[in-house]
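Mods, move this if it's the wrong board.
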Amino acid sequence: MRAALEGRTEIIKALLAKGADLNEKDNWGRTALMFATINLHRDTVRTLLERGAEVNVRANDGATALMLAACAGDIGIVKALLARRANVEGKFISTGKTAAMLAADHGFDEVAQLIRGIEGRAILRTHAQSLTEPQAENELVEIRNQITQKPRNHLSDLGAGILSRSQGPTSRGRSSAEASDHAE
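Not the wrong board. Structure tokens:
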């Protein structure tokens, strides 16, 4: 853990070669990946991820490596964690804040937007998976109908009715004024 905290990537590689547990936790439930993340040791984070560090381990307070990276505002580490399918929905136990909320609170808007985009896709995926096939088909039909329906505007309907009555078979596409000129 200390090697990750200090960003000593070569020592971590040597420890892993001797069989060290990549996902070992300290008394607070923090892992080497979390320590490397919060201290912005990118090479160490990359090495740990390449060696299979679990990105979704939760510390005793609910923190994950993604939440810590969001607090630190390092978009490179955030992207690396997201590429390994880091859970964007994890929350701190005491505050209920997610990684996106933490990034926004610390003024890291680009990081917050990136994570929120992933959150949105995760919500849609979860919703889609919770539907039975007939439910999904019904929702799809309803969405298609909403898209293809023209908005009803009673004034435009009224105008269309007036135009169709004023244009008789003699007008053949002429305006009402043209049709009345030719009728005289």
